[in-house]
Amino acid sequence: MTVELLNTHPNAPTLGRVILVGAGPGDPDLLTIKALRVIESSDFILYDRLVSKEIIALFPTKTPTMYVGKQKSNHSVPQDELNDLLVAKARQGLTVCRLKGGDSLIFGRGGEEILKLKSAGIEVELVPGITAASGCASYAGIPLTHRGISQGCTMVTAHGEKELNLNWEHLAKIDHTLVFYMGLSKSQLISTQLQIHGMSPTTPVALIENGCCPSQRVIRGQLHELPLLAEREIVQSPALIIVGDVVNLADQLAWFSNNEFSNAGLLPKSRHQIQKLSA
Fold first, then answer.
1. In the beta sheet, which residues pair with residue 70?
2. Which of 27, 250, 243 is nearest to 141 (CA)?
3. How would you label 169-205 residue by residue, b for 16+ Cβ within 10 Å and e otherwise?
């Protein structure tokens, strides 16, 4: 009874909440309807570097926003400070949209943020997003699994919290499609270690730069030349690396061109249409 009285005291501050939203891999048409509703209705938006400019253009003009993106060795807001910021904004009574590229719980540090928020007594909600492995592979015409070629897919981050500690022998022999996130700067390591542990140097690879965006590029080759491809083609982050025989299907399954973004699609073009869709 005492606890109930404390929680319902008329002068007690009203806590807000934080909604972690996966923005998908770039194409705004890949936002879920729920994600769009949260973007439209939140009091404050904190967004990452991998949220595309096309999605940023959908932010309501009157909603305060803050960029909290991370690049290699350059974090605009350190993770610990970001966790504290989320708590502080929720304690102001705000509904906070924490917008992340891809999916919040796949190499997005979403779990760390949720743990911090829950320990502070803040209500949390999750809106899943299409992760880069699925979205970028689809737009490149590369199936992550294909009967008779690959019966599984393994997603790997090329960056650890302190050091990269991967079981390269397992990865080389698992006979899955391998998808490396944040692997561009580690392309030499990936190529060398997989070959050392038994993967054929001629295994097909693909680098997908700016996947699901108007500037998407797909560079294909073989495992032994992976670092050369990245250097020769001046591949820029964000880029995804796919390793496996499924890459050979890209020509047969190709469907996407950069012109897709200039064609009429599902993306609402006016604020009225956006509000109608998210209602």
1. 75
2. 250
3. eebbeeebbbbbbbbbebbebbbbbbbeeebeeebbb
pTM for the model stands at 0.86
What token pair was written down for 256?
């996407």
Give me the domains of the chain, ranges plus CATH numbers: 2-130 (3.40.1010.10), 133-258 (3.30.950.10)
Q: Which residues sit opposite 208 in a β-bridge?
A: 218, 240
Q: What is the mean pLDDT of each run of 10 residues along the chain (279 residues)?
A: 40 83 96 98 96 96 93 71 96 97 95 97 98 97 97 90 83 96 95 97 98 94 98 96 98 85 44 47
- Given this model, what pLDDT does residue 154 score? 97
Q: Are 211 and 140 in contact (CB under 8 A)?
A: yes
Catalytic annotation on 118?
no
- Exactly one of 29, 34, 43, 70 is catalytic; name it: 70
Angle, helices 271-278/33-41, rounded to nearest 10 degrees: 110
Predicted local confidence at residue 238, as pLDDT: 92
> Can 48 be counted among the known catalytic residues?
yes
Between β-strands 70-71 and 153-157, what pairing exists: parallel, antiparallel or unpaired?
A: unpaired
Q: Which of 48, 89, 103, 186 is catalytic?
A: 48
Which residues lie below 8 Å from residue 127, measured CB to CB, with a gap of 6+? 19, 20, 21, 22, 32, 34, 35, 38
